[in-house]
C-alpha cells in the first residue's frame, strides 16, 4: 500500500465553554483551519479529493459538516465532504479514515479535520414531532444526554455519565484524589510553560472574533489552562460525586476549537510541492466495558503495537487524552509504563481542553510539532471514548 503523509497540520486556540469562541459557529471554525492548511501548504484547493471532518455533537444547523466546511472555506463545489463520529476519538478517526482512502488509492489528497463548538450544543425535544395534546414537554441538553445515552441501559444498566466511569477506574486502580490532583497540576503547568516559551505559536492560527461593540477580538491563545494551578488551589474544589476523586480541576473541560491537515499519498508529494511532516503508520480501535470507558487505550495500544511490531518503550512521545486525571493514571498502570518526560509534555485535555470532535487532530498537531522540535522518530496518540472504546495511532516523523 501507499504511505499516507501528514502535511501542514494546524489548529485554532481552544476556547472555554461559553468563553471567547462562543459566538463562532462550527462552520467558521472549520473553514478557518481549512484556509490555513491551504495557505501553509500552498496546495491548489481543486486538488483535494475529499474532505473528512469529525463532529461529535452534530445538528441540522450544519448537516454533513465536512461538506459544509468545504463550501464555507470557498473550496470548489466539485470537492465533496463527509462527517463522521467516534465520540472523543472522532478527530483521530478522521485522520485514520483519510489515511485509508489514500493508502488504498481511493484518493490522493484528503483534507482531514475535527471541529466542535460545545458552547453551542442545543437543547432538543423528542416529544414534539406529532404534537403534545396536553401537559408538559421535556427538553434534553444534548451535551449531557449524549453522555447518559452512550450505551444501551437494558444491557449495561444505568450509567449516569463519564464522571461515574472515571470514579470506577479510580476505585479499580486505587487512585487517590491527591494523585489525581498532582497529575492535573502537572498538566496545567506544562500547558502554561508551553505557551510562555512560545512553543504553541507555530501550531495555532488566531481567530478574529466579532464583538457587539468595538473592534473584533483576536483570539490567539488557549484559555482553559490555569497558570496558578497548585495542590492547594485544586484541593479546594469539591468532588463531583461525594467521596469521589473527580473535580472540575482534575478533569477535562468542555471546549470550542477546530483542527485540520492534509493527508497525502506519498507518490504525489513531489508533484504537488508538498513537504510531509510525518507518516501515518497505523491505527487500532478496541472496545471495553462502557462503565470503564477510560481504560480503552490499554487494549487499543496493545493491538496497535502487535500490528506494527513496536513497543511503547520505542515511542519518543506519547499523547494520551486527559479525559480525567484518574483515567490517565489508570491507563498508565494498564500499560505498565509511565514516563513523564515523554507523556503529554505540553499538557492535554485537563489543561488545553477537550473539544470532543476536534481533540484527536489537535493532539496530533501538538504531537507532531513537538516531535519535530525534538527530532524524534515515533509518536503515539491514544484516546478513551465514551460508550467503551479506545483508539490509538502511530506517527513517524518524516
Describe this structure in words.
The structure is a single chain. The chain has twelve helices and 14 strands. The chain has 398 residues and is α+β, with helices and mostly antiparallel strands. It has a domain of 258 residues: Thiolase/Chalcone synthase (Peroxisomal Thiolase, Chain A, domain 1), CATH 3.40.47. The strands form three sheets. Strands 1, 2, 3, 4, 5, 10, 11, 12, 13 and 14 form a ten-stranded mixed beta sheet that branches. The model has no long low-confidence stretch (mean pLDDT 97). Pfam families: Thiolase_C, Thiolase_N. Its EC number is 2.3.1.9.
Keywords:
Peroxisomal Thiolase, Chain A, domain 1, 20% strand, 14 strands, alpha+beta, 398 residues, acetyl-CoA C-acetyltransferase activity, 10-stranded mixed β-sheet, EC 2.3.1.9, two-stranded antiparallel ribbon, transferase, Thiolase, Acetyl-CoA C-acyltransferase
Order of helices and strands: EEHEHEHEEEHHHHEEHEHEHEHHEE
What spatial form do the alpha-carbon principal axes imply? globular
For the record, what CATH class of the domain at 4-120 and 253-393 applies? Alpha Beta
The count of DSSP E runs of length 2 or more, i.e. the number of strands, is: 14
Put simply, the count of helices is 12
Spatial separation of the terminal alpha carbons: 17 Å
Estimate what percentage of residues fall within beta strands: 15-25%
User: So, CATH architecture of the domain at 4-120 and 253-393?
Assistant: 3-Layer(aba) Sandwich
Q: Can you give the mean pLDDT? A: 97
Low-confidence stretches: none
Give Rg in angstroms.
20 Å
Major beta-sheet overview: 10 strands, mixed
Structural class of the secondary structure composition? alpha+beta
Amino acid at each position: 500500500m501507499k504511505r499516507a503523509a501528514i502535511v501542514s497540520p494546524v489548529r485554532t486556540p481552544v476556547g472555554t465553554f461559553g468563553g471567547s469562541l462562543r459566538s463562532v459557529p462550527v462552520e467558521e471554525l472549520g473553514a478557518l483551519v481549512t484556509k490555513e492548511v491551504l495557505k501553509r501548504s500552498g496546495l491548489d484547493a481543486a486538488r483535494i479529493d475529499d474532505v473528512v471532518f469529525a463532529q461529535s455533537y452534530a445538528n441540522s444547523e450544519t448537516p454533513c459538516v465536512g461538506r459544509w466546511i468545504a463550501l464555507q472555506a470557498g473550496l470548489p463545489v466539485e470537492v465533496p465532504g463527509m462527517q463522521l463520529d467516534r465520540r472523543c476519538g472522532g478527530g483521530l478517526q478522521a485522520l485514520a479514515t483519510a489515511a485509508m482512502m489514500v493508502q488504498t488509492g481511493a484518493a490522493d489528497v484528503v483534507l482531514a479535520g475535527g471541529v466542535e463548538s460545545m458552547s453551542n450544543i442545543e437543547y432538543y425535544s423528542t416529544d414534539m414531532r406529532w404534537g403534545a395534546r396536553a401537559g408538559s414537554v421535556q427538553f434534553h441538553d444534548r451535551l449531557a444526554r449524549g453522555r447518559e445515552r452512550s450505551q444501551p441501559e437494558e444491557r449495561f444498566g444505568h450509567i449516569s455519565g463519564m464522571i461515574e466511569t472515571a470514579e470506577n477506574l479510580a476505585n479499580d486502580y486505587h487512585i487517590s484524589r491527591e494523585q489525581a490532583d498532582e497529575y492535573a497540576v502537572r498538566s496545567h503547568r506544562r500547558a502554561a510553560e508551553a505557551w510562555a516559551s512560545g512553543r504553541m505559536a507555530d501550531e495555532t492560527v488566531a481567530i478574529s472574533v466579532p464583538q457587539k461593540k468595538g473592534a473584533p477580538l483576536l483570539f490567539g491563545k488557549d484559555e482553559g489552562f490555569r497558570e496558578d494551578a497548585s495542590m492547594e488551589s485544586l484541593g479546594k474544589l469539591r468532588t463531583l460525586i461525594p467521596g469521589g476523586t473527580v473535580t472540575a480541576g482534575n478533569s477535562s473541560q468542555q471546549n470550542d476549537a477546530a483542527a485540520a491537515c492534509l493527508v497525502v499519498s506519498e507518490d504525489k508529494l513531489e508533484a504537488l510541492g508538498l513537504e510531509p511532516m510525518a507518516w501515518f503508520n497505523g491505527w487500532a480501535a478496541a472496545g471495553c466495558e462502557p462503565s470503564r470507558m477510560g481504560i480503552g487505550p490499554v487494549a487499543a495500544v496493545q493491538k496497535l503495537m502487535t500490528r506494527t511490531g513496536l513497543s511503547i518503550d520505542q515511542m519518543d512521545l506519547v499523547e494520551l487524552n486527559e479525559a480525567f486525571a484518574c483515567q490517565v493514571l489508570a491507563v498508565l498502570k494498564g500499560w505498565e509504563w509511565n514516563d513523564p518526560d515523554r507523556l503529554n509534555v505540553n499538557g492535554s485535555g485537563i489543561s488545553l481542553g477537550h473539544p470532543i470532535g476536534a481533540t484527536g487532530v489537535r493532539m496530533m498537531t501538538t504531537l507532531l510539532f513537538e516531535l519535530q522540535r525534538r527530532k524524534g522518530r515515533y509518536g503515539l496518540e491514544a484516546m478513551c471514548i465514551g460508550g467503551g472504546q479506545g483508539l490509538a495511532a502511530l506517527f513517524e516523523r518524516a
